[in-house]
Amino acid sequence: MQDNMSENDTDEAERHRAKMAKRKAVQDAEVASKTIAKGLLMINTGPGKGKSTAAFGLALRSLGHGWRVGVVQFIKGRATGEQAALESFGDRVVWHTAGEGFTWETQDKARDIAACQRAWGIALGLMDDPTIGLVVLDELNIALRYDYLPLDEVVAKLTSRRNDLHVIVTGRNAKPALIEAADLVTEMGAVKHHFSAGVKTQAGIEF
Amino acid sequence: MQDNMSENDTDEAERHRAKMAKRKAVQDAEVASKTIAKGLLMINTGPGKGKSTAAFGLALRSLGHGWRVGVVQFIKGRATGEQAALESFGDRVVWHTAGEGFTWETQDKARDIAACQRAWGIALGLMDDPTIGLVVLDELNIALRYDYLPLDEVVAKLTSRRNDLHVIVTGRNAKPALIEAADLVTEMGAVKHHFSAGVKTQAGIEF
User: Fold this and answer.
1) A141-182 confidence digits (pLDDT tens)
2) What's the ipTM?
3) How is residue B199 annotated by DSSP?
4) A75 and A106 within one domain
5) Which residue among A20, A31, A62 places its CB closest to the CB of B103?
6) CATH classification at residue A151
7) Which H or E run contains B8?
8) A150 min Cα distance to partner chain B (Å)
């Protein structure tokens, strides 16, 4: 930008300012219209990447506000970077890996069901802990999809949780009844995926 | 499950095992077919929640593998929970908030452009730092959408970065040229959003 602004530049700057002032008024009115504060039931679903990743990002954000966070992994059994990183927050993160890998790894339905029931029991305990502000139920959608847990009971317990508790559920193919009960549902769509271009699973990206 | 499994139960368990063994073979072949390891250019876009959140989840995952992470915020100027939480990783996280809020906050286009140019300069420095494994360019898509930065130059610099560097770009309305250059593009779709139900912006959830 030149020191001596031309008249056109000045006009354009003024038009921009007026447009943005108008937008700010709309934005401020919108913000003012929202008054409810409550714990949210959130779902990250869809075929794209970012469902669990965003849930752990939310855990990080919560930790930054001084909360305690509970995590239950229903399916995945593998140690991950996020688990290692969250260890630096000590007992402010309660982490449970109840899963033993995907269902094609165990090849044992009874064992998968038992692992999911164990995970759900742990989840209920975390949801009852008043010191915890956010509970991450990672891949719970997978457990529900395979009918490894009773959907009605899961939805009932999630909706009757205490009013200030945030819960985030991840996994593809979220059940309609869970979507119905949720406050926030994000569908991660895969516009483009590096696996299709022959790129393998890499540390720091997939786990 | 009963101690004495009926013949039906045994049959069903065996069918499950056979089906999962087959699926595992398919899965293993798929994994084996992917052999490329490289730094990825990733984009989180779309109207739904989780774009920046997943980028910070990825930062967390990278930190768990011992990497250093660089973050540049192009638009947002507000202090966030994720920023506070990432401070516990000391100098393994290099954080720059170059933005001063959304464009309707500053109402000054020249100032917004200057802030974006400053942010881009910082981003280039981080991308050149060989000790950094992941660079988060938060809301860069917004800067590009408003033409606050030259798209051609940004795409050229991103695609010519060193081979092992991962970069993640967030923000709505990713430019087609950037999508074309990317390895991974996820579109966050808003199936359901709590703002529509009058819930306000809350600590730990939105910031």
Assistant:
1) 999 999 999 999 999 999 999 999 999 999 999 999 999 999
2) 0.91
3) B
4) yes
5) A20
6) 3.40.50.300
7) helix B7-33
8) 15
